[in-house]
Amino acid sequence: MNRLPLFPITTKTENNLLTIAGHDLSALAEEFSTPLYLYDRATMDIAATEYKSSLTTRYPSPAFITYAGKAFLNRAVAQWTQTHGLYVDCTGEGEIAMAVAGGVPREHILVHGVNKSSADLAAAVKHAGTIVADNLTELERIANQFPIPNYHLPNLWLRLLPGVSVQTHHAHTQTGQHDSKFGMTSAEIMEAAQFCKAKGLPLNGIHFHQGSNFRDAGPLKVAIELGLDLAAEMGLADGWHFSPGGGWGVAYHEDELPQPNADDYVRVIAESIIGGTQARRLSMPHLHLEPGRSLVARAGVAVYRVGAIKHRGEKVWILTDGGMTDNPRHAMYRARYSCLAVSNPDGENVEKVSIAGPYCESGDVVIEDLPMPKLEVGDLIAVPASGAYQLSMSSNYNGSRKPAVLLLEEGQAQLIQRRETIEDLLRRDLGL
Q: What pLDDT, on the 0 to 100 scale, is given for residue 385?
């Protein structure tokens, strides 16, 4: 049972210890304490390069990759996106501020959100190159709050609700079904297009999203056809933009290996758009892909230290110093994870264990019923595929402090996010 393919590409077993980019994880845990999050730069770089290469091969018109800020965003990650010329998808003024602080230029900032506040829209108009309008009310707010010609507005795309979702492991990661809270129906899209025309708003694109962490790109074809029909009806011309969402999957557990192939995802989208535009005599759009977690999830590893072990009948609980406050995905989505012991990672699995955190919730569980070698108090474990939708969804429940984050390269371990302190928790409070 080989779990190494779940880990970053530079992960090795050396001298019976787990290493990433040549760094001994036990030494990093000793220096920076635990819980500790590690990101492997090489894995991130290769993921971005593979997508860009596939697009170059598959799609003859301009094409771009968008990084999902909601997966994990801070100043260093924002800076990394620009080493590959990526767009950055921001939801709200907070993520916009992080992108700007990381040097993302206006033309690469794309703003999403189903209920953007006036402050969100103001930040988007000031800093973004594109706003994806989710509903008619939002368009009315834009027109009233930022009347033309007093304001120079970013490009506007309309978010389509295609009425078909992709297959994901949990309903809460699906976004394209008929009863979803996201986007506009076809009729609403046409009403929105007429509104934009009447108000002189810079409408030049269509976006949709069907779900997150899927492996079968087939359902995208139906939504692409619908999007192209609307583009033709709206009269979108040369240089228009089309974003068929994203959310391509990664393997979190050895049962899910091998890792999904990025080119399979790109090929389905490119072929569908090329054939669909030709059939409609529609100009080829600028294509924007949002690969989601597949750019960064595999690059991330969470390191926890075992603090206690409990035997409850046949149940073995491994209690660690991290859990639902830094990784709520199991509690929210029943997400499956795997792990390796940092010391003796190739040891024989002798028992099934469940790994839980220190917090006062029965749902504070990271992994259930995973075969593992014998673990002892003080041992370290490493949880792969921890790079997306964990730290960005983390909390201060029970007064926990968010962990330190390191970016690893050969010969360098750079602290890109310091561990929160008690002073950080108290700084916001005013008292009576």
A: 98
Q: Where in the chain is the domain with CATH 3.20.20.10?
A: 42-295
Domain with CATH 2.40.37.10 in the chain: 4-40+298-427
Beta partners for 405? 37, 417
Phi and psi at residue 319, to the nearest 5°: -100, 125
- The mean pLDDT of 401-426, rounded to a whole number, is 97
Q: CA-to-CA distance for 316 and 323, rounded, in angstroms?
A: 16
Q: Are strands 380-383 and 340-341 parallel, antiparallel or unpaired?
A: antiparallel
CA 202 to chain CA centroid, nearest Å: 28
User: How many Å apart are CA 12 and CA 345, to the nearest integer?
Assistant: 10
CATH architecture of 4-40+298-427: Beta Barrel (2.40)
Tell me the whole-structure pTM to 2 decimals.
Answer: 0.94
How distant, in Å, are the alpha carbons of 316, 323, 404, 405 from that of 401?
Answer: 27, 12, 9, 12
Cα 266–Cα 271–Cα 277 angle in degrees, nearest 5: 125
93, 123 Cβ separation under 8 angstroms: yes
pLDDT band at 173 (very low <50, low <70, confident <90, very high): very low
CA 113 and chain centroid, separation: 15
What pLDDT does 166 receive?
Answer: 42
Pick the closest to residue 367 from 321, 329, 314, 405 (CA basis).
Answer: 329
Which carries the bigger pLDDT value, residue 178 or residue 133?
133
Tell me which residue of 408, 389, 403, 400 sits closest to 425, measured CA to CA: 400
List, for residues 100-122, the tens digit of each pLDDT value.
Answer: 999 999 999 999 999 999 999 99
Taking phi first (over 0 means left), then psi (-120 to 50 degrees means alpha), and beta for anything else, what does residue 389 get? left
CA–CA gap between residue 48 and residue 55 (Å, rounded): 11
What CATH number matches the domain at 42-295, 3.10.310.10, 3.20.20.10, 3.30.70.100, 2.60.120.620? 3.20.20.10
Task: List active site positions.
Answer: 360
pLDDT score, position 217? 85
Which residue shows structure tokens 């596939």? 54
Residues near 244 by Cβ (< 8 Å), separated by ≥ 6? Answer: 208, 220, 223, 224, 227, 269, 273, 287, 289
